[in-house]
Automatic annotation (TrEMBL):
Keywords: Signal. The keyword Signal applies. Residues 1-15 form the signal peptide. This is PAN-3 domain-containing protein. The keyword Signal applies. Pfam families: PAN_3.
Length: 259
């Protein structure tokens, strides 16, 4: 009887373990519906869905928190705003929480599956429009690892929004950098004919994808447009995807985390 009671107790405790969730301070101030949740109560429904998933970990580092900053482990202020949390569950069911990398001031933290990376959007200096090789060189200096690309549709949207915002700041500091051409962004990827079977150098990304539009004649490299979703390809040696109406203005770079 005693052993039956123990079995019941541990079964109940295990069920309780899987039905609890830690919610960090605040909630996103700006988000779109995703993951099959499309209601007016998005955040509430998101938490409910996360509670039902044993391995659910959702983080938001850009728009949290709402209201006053919460203290971090007894500190008076949040002193490490760019971090992620990994949860590892051992064979005996014990959870281990680990804080991940911190990115530099010119980068932000992106979660790619079970990996965390730092991304930086870098505009070219004068003459502003440059080719793919210049993009690779720019991404390899100043704490840069190299070119990267979007991991998901949500990350691509984030890149496009940030790129448009950063160009406005560039124009304020350098009025000559403001012109009417489309300001496209080189990204990791070299493709075969027709923009097929594109391969990347960043090992946190998937290779062998196809672009939605190919504007190249010979060698094809991937770029992201600032106003429309989807990856495209242009001539690697070129500085414009659409001749005189566009400019390959910068690059999506991956950077080293702060040590």
């Amino acid at each position: 009887m005693f052993f039956l009671w123990l079995l019941f107790f541990f079964s109940f405790a295990l069920a309780e373990f899987h039905s609890k969730m830690i919610i960090t301070w605040g909630q996103p101030a700006n988000y779109n519906s995703y993951d099959n949740i499309n209601t007016d109560n998005f955040w509430t429904d998101c938490l409910k869905q996360c509670l039902e998933e044993v391995d659910c970990v959702r983080t938001n580092t850009e728009f949290c928190p709402i209201g006053d900053d919460a203290p971090l482990f007894g500190e008076d202020n949040v002193i490490e705003p760019y971090y992620s949390i990994n949860v590892t569950i051992s064979q005996d069911g014990i959870s281990f929480w680990q804080f991940n990398i911190k990115c530099g001031d010119d980068s932000w933290l992106a979660i790619r599956g079970n990996q965390s990376v730092c991304i930086s959007l870098r505009p070219f200096p004068s003459p502003y429009c440059m080719n793919y090789e210049a993009a690779r060189n720019m991404c390899s200096v100043n704490n840069g690892i190299g070119l990267t690309n979007s991991y998901s549709d949500i990350e691509e949207l984030d890149i496009r929004i940030r790129w448009n915002n950063s160009l406005q700041e560039v124009a304020i500091n350098d009025p000559n950098a403001l012109f009417s051409k489309t300001k496209d962004l080189w990204a990791d990827g070299i493709c075969s004919s027709g923009g097929k079977n594109c391969n990347v150098t960043d090992d946190t990304l998937q290779s062998d994808f196809n672009v939605i539009n190919d504007y190249a004649i010979n060698n094809r490299c991937v770029f992201i447009a600032p106003s429309a979703p989807g990856k495209r390809s242009a001539e690697c040696s070129g500085t414009s995807a659409y001749r005189d109406t566009s400019c390959l203005r910068g690059a999506v770079c991956r950077t080293f985390p702060i040590q």
